[in-house]
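ARCHIVE CARD
Drawer: 12
Card no.: 0347
Subject: one protein chain, sequence and derived structure
Cross-reference: see card 0346
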Amino acid sequence: MKKSNQKLLNYTGLASTILASASVNAQAVGVNINPDLVLTVDSNPYSLDFNNDLTPDLNFAVQPISGTQTYMGFPFTYEGIVAGVSFPVGNGAYGSLSSSSGTSAPGSFTITALENGTPISSSDVFGSSSQNALAIDVVADGGLLGTFAYAFGPFVEASYKFIGAKFQANGNTHYGWVQLSVTPGADSLIIHGYGYNQTPNATINAGEGGDLSQLENVSLEDKVTFFNTLNNAKVNVTPDLIGGEINLVNMTGQIITTTKITDIETVINYDGIETGIFTLNVNFQSGTINKKVYIK
């Protein structure tokens, strides 16, 4: 994690042009971002314009955070990463207000990670804070009390979930959605696509109008890609497979190394491993993929 004295997020600026393909379903217009837009702490913030009127409707960013807070009289220093979104005045995100019995402060707003097909309309609660954390990963140092790691937020390790949004255009309110994933550690925010209803005040379902690839309809073999070199192997997976593990196994069945999958790309180094044929045994809850590799 990178150090920074920045305690507040700055969600401004425009990202570079991306390739996108659009499809229309009645009044619902969807855009499939191809390739996916990946934001990290080294990226510029990305401003999304639903209807291409040159007015940003919401802004995404991944940024480092650090600071000091006091809890029960004990000072804690912290640093970490936050993936977040902000909205211009009049726009907002689908979510909920906490009650007095919740863990958040009464009346605080939290964006909801929506499933495909969830209706988004005027009957929902929308928050319009200038700063909304989708996922936060921090390490807090309490001195003699020890060091603590925390990961929290509605989109922690989310794969292909949706933000419901409302935005203003020509004095009218429109409803839309954004499909995204967030990697563990909140260090990558991946935007897959977005859509909105062209009819003012009309309901739209999350994913409606878009030609989006839903992971539940994709085979496990198509979610895993291998790149083998003389020095290492790179294993790329779709975000929903993060959390699996990779075993490097020799011809006698002995496990040489085990590597946890914590990002969409995992590198298996061959340093110190003797020449021979090995198997990369990639294990997930949904199944196993095996790949033969030759190490020289």
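Annotation on reverse: The chain has two domains: 20-216, 218-295. Residues 218-295 form a domain with the Immunoglobulin-like fold (CATH 2.60.40.3080).
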